[in-house]
Amino acid sequence: MSLKTGILIALICIAGAAPAYAQTPPARTANPHGPLTIPCTECHTATSWKPIRAIPEFNHNNTSYKLRGMHTNVACASCHVNPVFKTAPTSCASCHADIHRRQFGTACESCHAEQGWTVSLQYARQHENRFPLTGAHGALQCVACHKGAATGTYVGLSTACASCHLKDYNAAKTMNHVAARLSTNCEGCHAMSRWQGARFDHNTATKFALTGAHAKVQCASCHLNGNFTAIAQDCFSCHSKDYNSTTMPNHAASGYSQNCTGCHTTAQWRGAGFDHSRTRFPLTGAHTTVACTSCHVGGTFTTLNTACASCHMTKFTATKSPNHVAAGFPTDCTTCHTNVAWTPATFNHSATKFPLMGAHVSVACSTCHVNGKFAGLGTACVGCHLPEYTATASPNHTAAGFPQDCTLCHTSVQWKGAVFDHNKTKFMLTGTHTTTACASCHVGNLYAGTPTDCYSCHSKEYNSVTNPNHMSAGFPKTCASCHTTIQWTGATFAHNQFPIYSGKHAGKWSVCADCHTDSSNYTVFSCTNCHTHAKATTDSHHSGIRGYVYNSLNCYSCHPKGTS
Fold first, then answer.
1. Largest CB tally within 10 Å, which of 5, 166, 318, 387?
2. d(CA 181, CA 184)
């Protein structure tokens, strides 16, 4: 049986044994704790209201404010000064006085913990704000920077090194920081681990990175008299003595640039190497192995001429095959020579006005350039091929008056097998003309001034034709009116003036003689051969018509010439 059940049974027994005169119950005690949802017996006993139980059954962790750390040993009345428990505050500042002058606000848990009020080293390392504690700073007591401990300054404190280390800055003697006007940004040289053994990173902190031999030079070698600011960064400011004392080559006399990096490196002063590719005259080919003095005679290194002839004029004048001077060759040696070797030279004829093609490529230079003449040579074919032109008999070029432009018939592949393009003349060859021998038209080797009319070649055919007889009929001598170049026979006449191939006349005749009764004169024709009408009948129909005569010519003058 539980304690609660026993108490309840005892109370019932006492009530049953009471005398009949006890009619009025004792007065109820008011609840001083305000509304509660827990039984009173979790804290109070049936013996008396006070004191409460030594070990209450109330679990504070079931509330919105759990007890942890040192809070578990605090007397209830220390926090619950008012018997109404729900009015008890939950913020730290309600119980713990703010000795930091409200510099950190009311969030005590930012630095303090429930396990102990004193700030531990672990929390000091969690100085995760705008100034994290690293290195030796992590081992310092707060008071070292926040002077006055609890009453010191905690917010708005400067994070600059000089705010704490200005005394060290002013007292430095090995390198007088004040005299040298060094930066008060201490982390430029000092580390967080320790103040001594400062190291300056010249490569990141300045515009002059130390490389090669510069990395081993004592600071005082460049920073004379403790000058660390406004020091020149050009090579000559430190190496002027080396520049002026150098005689091979003499830098000052030769007018060398005072920018030493053009030849020297920071690895060492001696063994300088000049990069000629950075000049107006890069060295390539055989020029890379030539001694400097071969071109830079007398120690001249500036304003030196870059033209080939300035060094190679002796070879230019001494060359006899071919004689450069007599031939008037240009002094620009690069036209024929390369910088790999002076000989053998090759001339690019394609760069001239006369590119070599076909058989010209394999012809010896002296064949065209007779007596060493190279400049001012003509480019016309006849300049070299006049003997072939005059010696040709079939056809005879001279007698025929052929033009001396050989390219009209010949190519550069070979002289023989010439082909003339007749289509480039005033008389294009078509039909059977394309297979006709040249001599058929160009009789007597006559090529210039050959007539282009048909009759000049076809007069024999014109005169011999009898059906119809061209001569007696008075046919025009423009053969093209009826004939084509495909073949002579099968001529067709364009009967445009009196259409006989269309209309009512189409298919009504067989031969020309049906209408043209006189084969010797095609101007004579007959209409009455087909249109047979008695003269008397025709006369009666034309009575009163002025100019009427019964004959074909008069009929044709009035009757329609078209499709009638």
1. 166
2. 9
